[in-house]
C-alpha cells in the first residue's frame, strides 16, 4: 500500500501507525466491486443513504467541538470544517446526480452506522470510555481537551477516504469514460478534499500541543477506534452480486467447499531466517567441561570456534547462492511463461541446497542442542506483523472451510510448532519440514531430510492435495517469498508472494512470470466475474500476486480482522 505524507504531528504519527488497517477497507466487497466498476446500483444507493447519516454526525460533532474550543482561531477553523460538511450535505443530491445516479430512498440506519454515529456523538459530548471528564466542562482546558478528542475521532475517516480512493484511482484509465464510479472516485481524490482532510489533521495537531502523555494516549485510542468503526461500516455494506472477496466466503461448506492454505515459514511467517537462530542456540548453549574436569567431545569446540565455523558456512552459502542465480539469469530471458525452463533452472538450486545442508551436518554445528532450548527459542521467535492473527483465525475454526499447512526448508519442525503455538492448538497445525535427529532430547547433529528443494516442496504440496476429498469445490492458496517456493506458488490456484525478494523476482521474470499487486489483481478478477460470469483462478498461468503484509492476506481471504 502506498505512502501518504500527512505531516509530523500527532495526526501524521497516528496515521502512519494505523494506516496498515486501511487494507481491511480496501479489500471489502464494496470497494473491490466499486474499483472494478461493477458495484450494483442498489449497493451504492444503500451506501449513499448511510453516508448521509455519517455526514450529519460529523456536522454535529464539529458543532460541539466548536463550543469547546477556547481560542478564537480554533473556533473559526472548526466552524469552517463544519461549513464544508454542511455545504456537502446541501449539495449532496446534486452531486449524486452529477455522479450519474438516481437519489436513493431514505433507509434506516444499520447497526454499523449507529455504532459509528453514537461514537462520534459521545466523544464530542465528552463521554469517553475510561476517561474522566467532568459532567460539566468547567475550565477552558477541559473544553479544549474534548475538542481535541473530537478531532481525533474524525481525522482518520477523512484521511482513510482520501487514501483509499487514490489507491483505486491509480488503477483506472484516466481516459476510460465507461467506469460508472469514476466521477465519485475523482471527487474524493480532488485537491479540495485532500485539503479538507489536511486541515482536520493540522487542527488536531494544534489542539493537542498542550495535552499530557495520558491525554495523547486517549486520542490514539479514539483514532484507532474510529478506524475500526470505518472498517466495520464498509464491511457491513450489503453486496447482492458475486464478489471475489473474502475468498473463504466464495466457498460453500454445504457442498464440500474447501480452501487449502499453504505457506512457507522462514521470512514469510518470520522476520528472521530460522537456520541462523538454530546456530545461535548451538553457540550460546555450547556445553562446558564436565564437573570432574574431563571434557566432552562437544566442549572441545569453543563457542568462538563454533561461531567462526557457522560464519564460514553462511558466507559460503551466500556466495554459492549468488553464483547459482547468476548462472541462471545470464541466459536469454523467456518471451513468454516457460514452466519447463524454470524447472530445469531450479534443479541447480536443488543440488546447491542439498550440498549446503550436507556441509552443515558434517560441521557438527547442530550437534548437542537441547529440545527444550529449541522450543523456548521458537516461542520467542518474532513473527511478521499480522501473521499470528491470521493463523489464529484459521486454527480456531472460525471458518470451517479453511485449513493451513506450513511447508518449509527449516531444519527443525519443533521450532516451527513452538513459534506458532501462541496462535492456537499445535495439533491443528500441519507442519511439513525437515527435523533434527535427537537422542535423549539432545540433537545428534544429523538432519532428517524431507524438504530440501523446490521439487520436494512441490511433491509434498501435491501429496497433501491428493489426500483430500475429491468431491466438492476446492481452492488452494500458497504464500511464500523465496526461490524455493516458486513451483508451489505457480501450482496453487492463487500464488501470493510475500515481501519483495529481488532474487525471486529476477528469477521469475527470467522465465516469463508476471508479478501483480494483489489488490489490482482482485479488481481485474472482479471485472471477470461480470464479463465472463465467474472468477476462474487458473493454475500455472504464470501470474503471481504480491503483498507487503499479512494484513492484506487476511483481508483477502478472511475479510475484516474484527
Automatic annotation (TrEMBL):
<feature type="domain" description="Thiaminase-2/PQQC">
    <location>
        <begin position="149"/>
        <end position="236"/>
    </location>
</feature>
<dbReference type="InterPro" id="IPR004305">
    <property type="entry name" value="Thiaminase-2/PQQC"/>
</dbReference>
<dbReference type="GO" id="GO:0006772">
    <property type="term" value="P:thiamine metabolic process"/>
</dbReference>
<dbReference type="GO" id="GO:0005829">
    <property type="term" value="C:cytosol"/>
</dbReference>
<dbReference type="InterPro" id="IPR050967">
    <property type="entry name" value="Thiamine_Salvage_TenA"/>
</dbReference>
<dbReference type="Pfam" id="PF03070">
    <property type="entry name" value="TENA_THI-4"/>
</dbReference>
<dbReference type="InterPro" id="IPR036412">
    <property type="entry name" value="HAD-like_sf"/>
</dbReference>
<dbReference type="InterPro" id="IPR016084">
    <property type="entry name" value="Haem_Oase-like_multi-hlx"/>
</dbReference>
<feature type="domain" description="Thiaminase-2/PQQC">
    <location>
        <begin position="29"/>
        <end position="125"/>
    </location>
</feature>
<protein>
    <recommendedName>
        <fullName>Thiaminase-2/PQQC domain-containing protein</fullName>
    </recommendedName>
</protein>
<dbReference type="InterPro" id="IPR023214">
    <property type="entry name" value="HAD_sf"/>
</dbReference>
Amino acid at each position: 500500500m502506498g505512502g501518504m505524507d500527512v505531516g509530523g504531528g500527532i495526526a501524521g504519527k497516528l496515521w502512519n501507525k494505523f494506516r496498515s488497517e486501511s487494507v481491511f477497507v480496501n479489500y471489502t466487497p464494496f470497494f473491490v466491486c466499486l474499483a472494478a466498476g461493477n458495484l450494483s446500483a442498489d449497493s451504492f444507493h444503500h451506501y449513499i443513504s448511510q453516508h448521509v447519516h455519517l455526514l450529519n454526525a460529523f456536522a454535529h460533532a464539529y458543532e460541539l467541538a466548536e463550543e469547546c474550543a477556547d481560542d478564537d482561531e480554533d473556533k473559526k477553523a472548526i466552524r469552517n470544517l463544519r461549513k464544508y460538511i454542511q455545504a456537502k450535505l446541501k449539495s449532496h443530491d446534486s452531486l449524486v446526480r452529477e455522479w450519474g445516479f438516481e437519489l436513493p430512498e431514505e433507509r434506516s440506519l444499520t447497526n454499523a452506522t449507529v455504532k459509528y454515529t453514537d461514537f462520534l456523538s459521545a466523544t464530542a459530548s465528552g463521554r469517553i470510555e475510561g476517561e474522566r471528564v467532568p459532567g460539566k466542562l468547567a475550565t477552558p482546558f477541559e473544553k479544549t481537551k474534548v475538542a481535541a478528542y473530537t478531532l481525533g475521532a474524525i481525522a482518520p475517516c477523512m484521511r482513510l477516504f482520501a487514501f483509499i480512493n487514490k489507491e483505486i484511482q491509480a488503477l483506472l484509465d484516466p481516459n476510460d469514460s465507461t467506469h460508472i464510479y469514476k466521477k465519485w472516485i475523482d471527487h474524493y481524490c480532488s485537491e479540495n478534499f485532500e485539503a479538507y482532510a489536511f486541515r482536520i489533521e493540522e487542527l488536531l495537531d494544534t489542539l493537542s500541543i498542550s495535552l499530557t502523555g495520558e491525554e495523547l494516549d486517549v486520542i490514539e485510542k479514539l483514532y484507532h477506534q474510529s478506524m475500526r468503526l470505518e472498517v466495520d461500516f464498509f464491511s457491513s455494506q450489503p453486496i447482492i452480486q458475486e464478489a471475489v472477496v473474502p475468498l473463504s466466503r466464495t466457498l460453500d461448506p454445504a457442498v464440500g467447499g474447501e480452501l487449502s492454505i499453504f505457506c512457507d515459514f522462514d521470512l514469510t511467517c518470520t522476520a528472521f531466517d530460522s537456520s541462523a537462530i538454530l546456530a545461535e542456540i548451538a553457540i550460546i548453549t555450547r556445553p562446558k567441561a564436565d564437573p570432574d574436569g574431563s571434557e566432552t567431545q562437544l566442549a572441545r569446540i569453543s563457542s568462538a570456534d563454533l561461531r567462526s565455523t557457522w560464519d564460514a558456512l553462511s558466507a559460503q552459502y551466500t556466495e554459492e547462492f549468488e553464483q547459482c542465480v547468476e548462472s541462471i539469469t545470464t541466459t536469454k530471458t523467456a518471451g513468454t511463461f516457460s514452466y519447463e525452463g524454470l524447472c530445469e533452472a531450479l534443479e541447480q538450486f536443488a543440488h546447491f541446497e542439498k550440498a549446503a545442508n550436507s556441509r552443515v551436518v558434517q560441521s557438527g554445528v547442530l550437534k548437542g542442542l537441547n529440545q527444550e532450548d529449541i522450543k523456548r527459542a521458537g516461542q520467542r521467535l518474532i513473527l511478521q506483523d499480522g501473521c499470528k492473527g491470521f493463523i489464529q483465525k484459521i486454527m480456531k475454526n472460525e471458518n470451517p472451510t479453511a485449513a493451513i499447512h506450513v511447508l518449509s526448508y527449516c531444519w527443525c519442525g519443533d521450532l516451527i510448532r513452538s513459534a506458532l503455538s501462541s496462535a492456537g492448538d499445535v495439533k491443528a497445525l500441519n507442519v511439513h519440514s525437515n527435523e533434527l535427529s535427537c537422542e535423549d532430547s539432545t540433537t545428534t547433529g544429523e538432519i532428517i531430510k524431507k524438504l530440501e528443494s523446490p521439487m520436494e516442496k512441490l511433491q509434498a504440496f501435491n501429496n497433501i492435495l491428493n489426500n483430500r476429498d475429491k468431491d466438492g469445490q476446492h481452492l488452494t492458496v500458497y504464500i511464500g517469498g523465496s526461490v524455493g517456493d516458486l513451483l508451489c506458488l505457480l501450482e496453487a490456484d492463487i500464488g501470493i508472494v510475500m515481501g519483495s525478494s529481488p532474487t525471486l523476482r529476477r528469477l521469475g521474470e527470467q522465465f516469463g512470470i508476471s508479478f501483480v499487486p494483489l489488490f489490482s489483481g482482485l479488481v481485474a478478477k472482479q471485472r471477470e466475474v461480470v464479463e465472463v460470469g465467474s472468477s476462474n483462478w487458473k493454475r500455472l498461468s504464470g501470474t503471481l500476486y504480491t503483498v507487503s503484509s499479512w494484513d492484506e492476506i487476511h483481508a483477502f481471504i478472511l475479510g475484516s480482522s474484527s
